Amino acid sequence: MKGYYMYPDIRNDFVAFTTDDDVWLMSLKDMRPIRVTTDTGVSIKPKISPDGKRIAFTTLWLRSGKQGADVFIVEDGRSKRVTYFNRPTTWVAGWLSDKEIMVITDYHTPFNAWTEAYKVNVNDESYEPLPYGIVSNISIKNETIVIARGYQDLPFWKGYRGGTKGELWISFDAGETFKKFLSLNGIISHPMILNDRVYFLSDHESVSNLYSVDMQGENLLKHTNFSDYYCRNASSDGKRIVFQRAGDIYLFDPQTNNTIKLEIEVFTERKKKRPKFVSTMEYLTDVDVNQNYIGLIVRGKPFIMRPWEGPVVQLGEKQGVKYRELQFLSNEDIAVVDSNENKLLILSKDGKIKQKVEKDFGRIEKIKASPDGKKLLISNNRLELWLYDLESKKEKLIDKSSYGIIREFDWHPTGEWFSYAFPEGFRTQSIKIANVSGNIIRVTSPYAFDFSPSFDPDGKFLYFLSARTLDPSSDKFIFNMSFQRVIKPYLVVLSKAYSPFNQPLEEVKHDKNVDPEGIQYRVIPFPVEEDNYVKISGAKSNKVLLYSQPIRGQLNPQEDTLGKIEIFDIEIKSKEVFAENVRNFVITKDGSKVLLVFKDSIRLVNATTKPDLSTQGIKGGVVDTTRIKVLVDPEKEWRQMLFETWKLMKENYWSAEKLQGWDSVLDKYEKLLDRVSTRYELSDVLKEMQGETKTSHSYETPYDFETAEPLVIGGLGAEFNYDEQRECFKIVKIYSGDPTNEGERSPLKDPGVELNEGDCIYSIDGEKVRKGSINSHFINKDQAILEVLTSDGKNRTVSVRLMKDEKYLMYRHWVEKNREYVHKMSDGKLGYVHVPDMMYQGFAEFFRLFISEFYRQGLIVDVRFNRGGFISGLILQRLLLRREGYDVPRNGERIPFPYLSSPKVIVAVTNENAGSDGDIFSYLFKKYKIGILIGRRTWGGVIGISPRHLLVDKTVVTQPEFAAIFDEVGLGIENYGVDPDIEVDNYPQDYRTGKDRQLDKAIEIALKQMNT
């Protein structure tokens, strides 16, 4: 049976590789693979020891979005964990001897992209960093060391030419000094020293193939000549080379310059292709409800059920099709969208397909059925709103925006009118109503942001929400104003009658007629305070449900955003809490019942009275979702996922003209599916297919590989050396950012603990420590008891809380070290600001530092390793606000004016790991002539995404949808990056001494400019 083979390694006549999520070992003499790992996770990147007795490999865990990775070895059929870094960016790079391996990881570095090499003793699990700085891959032969920087395997962006494309550095003196060895116009990966040449993979001539150069980096030779699939993940034993290509493994012999494909047959049960049942609530995506039934889509499968008892019926094709956007029709037929063909289907409640609408609506984003079930409103990715008549089978284009998808609409109970939120501009949206004949009336002005239209079930009012109550409040941290609570509910009186909030003496009568004349003047705000409302729905008996979510920070977003529902009574003009911790809700068309969706349950309750949610069972409205049995056939599901990923790219890529040839891509990768036996292998195929766009941001981010959930390893925010004489772990470095800030201090410095460098830990939780990794004592722990011998000879016992993630502490330590260095080298004249991304953390970090640095004579803005985002404009605004004078008080220091303005001398530092909006910041920093840009060419990816599309198993796939085109360079930043004004690199040997050439150059330039 042919498998999907990955990550090969060779040692003499044995080849190791990964397939079926395990490591296999095969003799080249008999070609019979033997499985050597079982159920450790996803076991990848095997490396055979020099004596052939051990295999080191990396284990990945991914379960329900939680991930981790560490290195194991297998010997005599037994696996042993040898690292406890617990970082997803961790892999084994090779063996140094029969007992030592090289591991590359971002453990204890400030950034995920900052990976370093470690030497790990597999016998006792002790480790130490190798002093080569940032390393992506490494090859060592005697005194010669070749390290690679930049990307090593980039299946999701083929033809990459940006600043992180990589280069090779070489040392001939065992790592004391390095010099740049090789750079090409493409990715250079997997360096291997064989005889007197360095071999590597590169795609600088289009498709990745095997090349080599001599030890001076000259005499480039090409050894393979593939023209379709990439050569990837090469490895060598110093004699021969193996690599993967399209699920196969190839062997290259430099003596003969011949390449052969290894014909491998594996005998495996392919357990992960077996049908399985999955959780209902974890994969619930759509719900609808009517008077008789509840409809749900779980893992792409539509179900209907009576709320309390009876059978659960799965509709449509049972396997291999993903459905979405479920809507009940009045005759209890169901409308859904088939994601495979992106077609509208009508299903009967017995599960059969009654009608397939052949009209090409583009990518259907949302549907809504009319009250009589005879018509559907349909919006799409082409920014259109369509009306489709199920009886006449005719469609009508109602409206089209130039600014965004029409996402929200609702039907009047008569079915003659509907309302929708129409994108009028990039940040504005109006409410419109239209009748089924296509006549459109704008209800609200096009100058605010109005959304969530919902009709009163009695037909008297149209409700909506609007972000137009602009009451500014002062920002508590920076000199700025902001609008925190801007959203209020509004109603529109549809007939020429009094507002319910202005009752005359006589009885008010409303009818169900919609009178469009003068409707703009019948828009009335609810008599409630502004809040962060996100949804409004009309219920029976003059009740309105208002759903709001808390205003909170964005640095630690929850997977599910939970909010509260309040019920407003129009007659008595008051509201009360209806339900809390709600994920979503859907109301019946007649407004009598509401289906509440919580994180782990759903309830069907009366929509007009507050429910008793403390009651369980039917009395409390609890719907037993265990009645829904969701059976998944992975093989059919994976085929559907591949097709939908391809289809989404076809529909959403920013330029149809530039996606020429995409139709042939599907067949190229579909033919590999029969060999795929696990979700991890599918991920590899999806990434390769996405990479055929040769465009940035073509991502596939999986959610679950069906492994065990990775266990958290607590951290102490410190570095240790094992003291063999005293048999304890000596504290050699304690990390600290600003120790008064949360998460910026090692737990060893907590009150009552107060340990110091030089103290030695000899027991943890009553267990005497041994040589190895101290982290092995902290698996799945929140706290630990340490017995310590202090540097002055005292014995102490302390209780410490462990950090769940040390990454932020490492980052803050690095930033504060840089800031202190800049202050020292400039005698306090220069300030320092680092921006780690152009998202929420970057915004927070910029202003955290800026408020204490802006008043200095000059400023260094560091965007190295910036992960991108969307707020570069906000930071550029601040830097463009230049100091023009001072306010001088009678007492104290003079105050720069304008307040919080930037000094006139600004220097920026960037590097190859600054990308996306970090690219754009670097470009505009130069364009606006804010200052000198120093460092390396940036990442080069500026075609942005809207990551809203989930595959059936919650995998995120993205399509480059928004090309950043600039007046002077057009698309020139994409797949190239931004060149600095002054190129400066940090050499591998600089990391040993702590030298930062880029920062030093920035200080030099800034001081020079201040003195001119």
Question: Quick summary of this structure?
Answer:
The chain has 1012 residues and is mostly beta strands.
Explain what you see:
The protein has 1012 residues and is mostly beta strands. Among the domains are: 37-135, 6 Propeller (Neuraminidase), CATH 2.120.10.30; 141-267, Neuraminidase; 634-700, Transcription Regulator spoIIAA (2-Layer Sandwich), CATH 3.30.750; 718-803, Pdz3 Domain, CATH 2.30.42.10; 808-941 and 977-1011, 2-enoyl-CoA Hydratase, Chain A, domain 1, CATH 3.90.226.10. The chain is 11% helix and 36% strand. The strands form 20 sheets. Strands 58, 59, 60, 61, 62 and 63 form a six-stranded antiparallel sheet that branches. α1 (634-652) runs antiparallel to α2, α1 (634-652) packs parallel to α3 and α2 (662-670) runs antiparallel to α3. The longest helix has 19 residues, at 634-652. The protein starts with 5 loop residues before the first strand and ends with a helix.
